[in-house]
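User: I'm new to structure prediction. If I give you an amino acid sequence, what do you actually give back? Let's try with this one:
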Amino acid sequence: MIESNRSSEIADLLRGRIKTMNAGDKLPGVRTLSATLHASAGTVSAALAELAAHGLVRSEPGRGTFVAEVGPNVDPDFAWQSQALGSKRVDEGRASRLGGYGGGGKIPLSWGYLASELQPNDDIRRITARAAKSPHAWTMTDPTGLPELRRVIAADFRADPDDVLVVSGGQQALVSVLRTLAEPGATVLTESPTYPGAIIAAQSAGLRLASVPSDGGGVRVDALADALERTRARVVYLQPNFANPSGAVLTAERRLEVVELARRHGAFLVEDDWSRHLCLEGVTPAPLSALDPDGHIVTIVTLSKPVSPGMRVGAVIARGPAGRRLRASRTADDLCVAPLMQEAAVSLLTSNAWPRHLKRIRPELIARRDALVSSLRAAMPELRIPIVPRGGLHLWARLPDGVDSTAVCAAADTAGVLVGDGRHFFVDEPPASFLRFSFGAATPAQIDEGVRRLSAVI
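Assistant: Good question. You get back a string of structure tokens that encode the predicted 3D arrangement of the chain. For your 458 residues, that looks like this:
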């Protein structure tokens, strides 16, 4: 029997004994219980810790373990909290799905990170072990980030290192940027469909959201122009490259036009460039910031997507007063990103392991993308796939009319398959039913089996 099961067994046995004892009665010592129950001292201690966590016993150092006084079993009343908290800001359903795909033993057909076997785990372990020996790994750093890391990130975007702010991943970057660039109650425009994390980031900042339709070439410029005129919004959130969930890439012509719109309306464009290192075909287009001399573009980058979900390192690139405000507000969050994580990040990005990793995952992701497309078309020809993405990690598919995406996802979950509910990618009511698939977290064999199970529930 494994140790954890044995300690739980002993805890259950002691729980029965405690029911026959009075509050304040002393339990036998660990050595006595160890000999009586034929278990190690560590196992007995774990069992007592479990009982203490449930409030059944209390430990007094130097004296022993005693039966705790248990009060009457009264259901707590949290009704007062709803009144004190006021109305909800963040959509709990949408938020719970963002981080809820990491485990559970289900086939991950919707999970926005690389599978473990695609992550550079050996390189990360080696680099992190070496970084841990650095005297700088366990001290405070400048709130803006390690100078070496800022220089490496800046070089990738032809930016000034002083304009780079290191943060704990792309999601924190979104929250910080939207909170800083817009006042509570202001309107933020976003392409539709869009990343749910951007929606909840705006909600948490107390902002209103208005959506702008997009197509295979990215956000529709005519609709964006109308929305800017109508709402007077000063912040626009876009994913120009391999957008989540649609996979669309903003065309070269539209890139020029959206930057010009931002200039004309005195607005900020928040460029979420999460997929820059996940191009599968051709070359990732240059960032929008390359077209902008006047600081309208605020760029977000992350290492969590191309490396691993545990590599919580990202950056915000912003110039002028906006950059200064973002850097000034950094200390209101958590003072700095863990220096050890920053040391590991800069070591990875400047090593031969980084280009080797990107070269290795490209054919792997292409194979998984193609396997997903092939399986879906064979098993469910009624699904419409508007775009076969040339990068990123996601595939967007439209369900037949009359099929409810939420019901499909619930049935798929019961069948052991995780699929993204298209409703979560729209600010307002979706124009049709969609599913978001991902091809980075499952093997081709898992993809085939997951699609087979999914087809059985639709």
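You can read the tokens as a compact description of the fold. Here is one thing that stands out. The chain has 16 helices and 15 strands.
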